[in-house]
Amino acid sequence: MEAELRRIAGQYFAPETIESVRVFNRRAIVTLVNAAEDPAGAEAMEKALLAYPEIDKVSVVYTATRRDEGDTRWRIPGVKKIIAVASGKGGVGNLALALADLGKKTALFDADIYGPSVPTMLGFEDVSPISYDGKTFEPFENLGLKSMSIGSLVDKDTPLIWRGPKACGALQQLLTEVNWGDIDVMVIVSTPQDIALIDAVKGVNMFKRVEVPILGIVENMSYYLCPECGHKEFVFGEHGARETAERLGEKFLGEIPLNIKIRSYADGGTPIVYAEPDSPFSEAYREIAAKIAAAL
């Protein structure tokens, strides 16, 4: 089946640019490498693939080969390791706090240009960053984390209509022009995507293409934990992320429960790992953080 779909895709894109064609839950995922974005070609290919009764949806993923190691534009002085969290961003602040609890000097960078939430989560909303030399910013420091967000530079109600090079340039400038100091681990929050597992698959394929090591997959909002009896209710199905990790040959790092306290504490500027360190929800973050720390 996938070989036939690849043949069809080759009618619309150069065969050498087709990295892979995969079918997952009746969705065809076509990954292209070093191919120019072609909306008309992608639309035509989608129609052709949807003609197959086994296919309900089509996703096209554009990737590029890894930059030369001599490219220093994204190197951050003082930062030893960087963790980029793909797909949904919920819980990333708690993950950073859990890493800090392990004794790691941790920074959190909010790269979500369309809905930055770290200022709210860490309690520095409506506070402007400080620059002593007019060239670089000082990071915010709260709850044992150093952090910076694009949301600190714009009004929270102002929409940012940024695409491609403009968005990339703004993030590069902000990320590299902050005096981070000595940092063991920096956690970068990405712009969130659809929460479906298909986006985790896209993320894995993208990182593999550019040779970025993958630490593993986390299932967020995995189950509802009853506060009265401790019963687990798998509202969105059970073991989906675990099975996906196994199929992709990646590590499964753990499950984060669905609970209103996680959201309400974050909205109030005090993430649950700090507010209720002994809760089962905080423990879930710490278990995942320990696995990540061991893999770094």
List keywords for this structure.
three-stranded mixed sheet; 296 residues; alpha/beta; five-stranded mixed sheet; single chain
Question: How would you characterize this protein structure?
Answer:
The chain is an alpha/beta fold and 296 residues long. Helix content is 33%, strand content 20%. It has ten helices and twelve strands. The protein has helices spanning 2-9, 39-50, 92-101, 118-121, 164-176, 197-209, 240-248, 260-267, 272-275, 280-295; strands at 18-24, 27-33, 57-63, 79-85, 106-110, 140-142, 145-149, 183-189, 217-219, 224-225, 232-233, 252-255. The strands form four sheets. It has a five-stranded mixed sheet, covered by helices on one side. Strands 1-2-3 form a three-stranded mixed sheet, with helices on both faces. A hairpin with a 6-residue loop joins strand 10 and strand 11. Helix 3 crosses helix 10 (280-295). It starts with a helix and ends with a helix.
Give a summary of the structure in a few sentences.
This protein has ten helices and twelve strands. With 296 residues, the protein is of the alpha/beta class. The strands form four sheets. It has a five-stranded mixed sheet, covered by helices on one side. A three-stranded mixed sheet has the order 1-2-3, sandwiched between helices. A two-stranded parallel ribbon has the order 9-12.
- CA-based gyration radius: 20 Å
- Helix and strand sequence: HEEHEEHEHEEHEHEEEHEHHH
Number of strands: 12
The rough form would be described as globular
- Unreliable stretches (pLDDT < 50, length at least 5) are 192-197
pLDDT average, as an integer? 81
